[in-house]
Amino acid sequence: MREANYRDITEGLDPQTVAERVRDGMFANDRASQGLGMEITGIGPGYAKITMPVREDMLNGFSICHGGFITTLADSAFAFACNSYNEQTVASGISVDFMAPGRPGDLLTAEAREVFVAGRTGVYDITVTNQKGELIAVMRGKSYRLKGRAVVDL
């Protein structure tokens, strides 16, 4: 269970409603995720699922998806998961391991799950898979909660 300030800033709203409203408010301003064609297909307390198509302009010199785009997808899922409580939270560190390449035309899916939260810090695990369910990358994100809300008006 989150600290008292979580309950205070989400008065009377169930956690799923809070996560959905934060998703809507954050995504409306997230030009980076929008510009890369990302879609949020799942959201819940401490959880987010986002898809991104691998476009031709995302390919590196080997004609596979540049790792920076895969990392950005994972980071966006991480951001929506750790802000799902409407507590303004940022990344304090990430570690990414690539297992397989993303290919032109792939639909990549990043799923972020909260592993641990204590005080102002948290740990999240993110997996990136393709449309066949093949593992493309794994990321571990460390979060730091700032003061204030992720979305001012729920």
Please tell me about this protein's structure.
The chain has 154 residues and is of the alpha+beta class. The chain has one domain: Thiol Ester Dehydrase, Chain A. It is built from four helices and six strands. The chain has helices at 4-9, 15-29, 31-35, 67-82; strands at 39-44, 47-53, 89-98, 107-118, 121-129, 135-145. Strand 1 and strand 2 (47-53) form a beta hairpin.
Observed structural traits:
single chain; 154 residues; alpha+beta; Thiol Ester Dehydrase, Chain A; 6-stranded antiparallel β-sheet; 4 helices; 27% helix; globular; disordered N terminus
CATH fold annotation:
Thiol Ester Dehydrase, Chain A
Number of domains: 1
The topology string of helices and strands comes to: HHHEEHEEEE
* Cα-to-Cα separation, first versus last residue: 20 Å
Main sheet overview:
6 strands, antiparallel
Query: Which CATH class is shown?
Result: Alpha Beta
Quick gist of this model?
By secondary structure, the chain is α+β, with helices and mostly antiparallel strands. It has helices at 4-9, 15-29, 31-35, 67-82, and strands at residues 39-44, 47-53, 89-98, 107-118, 121-129, 135-145. β1 and β2 (47-53) form a beta hairpin.
